[in-house]
Amino acid sequence: MRVNIMQTTNHMDGQKLMENKSQNKGFINEYMPYIIVAGLFALLTYWYFWLATIADLAYVWQYVLQMFTLKFDGQIIPYSELTRLEQGYASIFGPQYDAIAPEVVRAFEERQHLLPYVFAVEIIIFAVMFFMQGGRKGPKTRQSTEMIEVHSLFQRIVVLGNILIMIYLFITGFSITFGNITGGGALGFFMRETHEIIGLFWIPVWLLMTVIAFKDHKHFKRLSSKWSKIFLKGLYTHTQRINYFAYVAFGFILCFSGFWLWFLSMDILPHAEIIQYRRLILFGHFMGSAVITFFVGETIYSYVVAIRGYLPGLITGKYPKEYLEEFHPEVLKGI
Amino acid sequence: MSKPDFSRMKFFCDEKRCIHCDGCSVACAEAHELPVSISRRKVVTINEGIQGLEFSLSVACMHCTDAPCEQVCPVDCFYIREDGIVLHDKNKCIGCAYCLYACPFGAPQFPKDGAFGTKGVMDKCTMCAGGPEETNSAKERELYGQNRIAEGKVPVCAAMCSTKALLVGDAEEVSNIFRQRVMAYGNAGKHNANHQPYGWSKAYGK
Asked: CA-to-CA distance for B171 and A221, rounded, in angstroms?
């Protein structure tokens, strides 16, 4: 009898295990893009911080923790414990020059030469994806009897504004990074100056794009119908969602660091108290700009390169029903 | 004593002699007609009010041998003269401020005269050696201030220093004078055991 009970229990456990396994398989299948991107990011982070960085990471980590106590000067060792010479240095020139500054110097010495290779690799990745899917996909029919509104007027203004601003920020940002090609001068100065000003205008646009990025989240779905008129409903695919999340995350780094880089140029604090913070956020700005380019590239690729996009829809907000059924069924499903 | 070849022109401020009179920074601002927001030279007092530990230093571009500002500048607007003076071309500078992040001494200065509080082109101590424009031309004077070096004079800040705390000249000569002073202090100085020249290892090369 005991044996039978054991057998029955084992049988039930086996069934549960099978169900769990199939559930796990379903989870992995469903979230595969997220898992792959997270894995690649873990590798990239390992390479970047543990293999390629020459900054004093132990110091940087302590400094980041110290900032949570609202202390931003970067003086990790208490001032009273420094030698007289070290106190002098910290008071006039800021703390530990050798902790972050060499990284900034190295980043700029190498950036101008290595960044084109990074972009070349990105383009190769997109080209491989393009050929693996068998070239560009076009809609089976361009005739349509029914147009469906996907973007409200407000959304269109925000998205188009975001596209134009980002194009300008990319061009002007590269004009600074690749200043060895432009050679500086009045035009280079104008581009750097407007990079800062347009960057400030990007902050509210980025915030609104963040709302659009999360519009299919359950908290936004619960909101009133007035909300739905401003941000029309619609679901995202996993790839689109990853691109949006990356846009939000790295856009935040760029907006945050960019704002401080601009604001601190007004000399609101003595040099020694703020220089280390400036170096740290500049380094964050470099990193954010390098990573966001990949996801922006992926967005452009998936919307207009891999498939023949319907660009008039970006202006009118309306897309042919057949086009949506073929390429963006998730949008129809959401509406 | 060998004749100096003036191949490595350097500043050095002896904090034991500096009395924070601000003569150097005022002379600099007057001589070069600098706008209010630019301080090519600053005098800083450390441990203010703490008896025995208070001292002052005159701070400006140290004209580093291995200048990090020159290394990070994306438009290569910096150039180092044969005598070691680090200068920059304001017509090339785009005001990105990367030199400020790389400088160990906080020397680069930026006027805040752009739209929305954006920065203008960088300004810094030229060791009174002007810029890439024609020597002693009106344009050079307007952009960079006086070119006293071309006239055979020492920089105005050092010339003005009443206690001779601020030294300028060939690195070898400056270090000789400093060494003689330290020897002369003997054990009388309170902080001699700790005494090292500020900025020496970075500005004078390691």
From this structure: 71
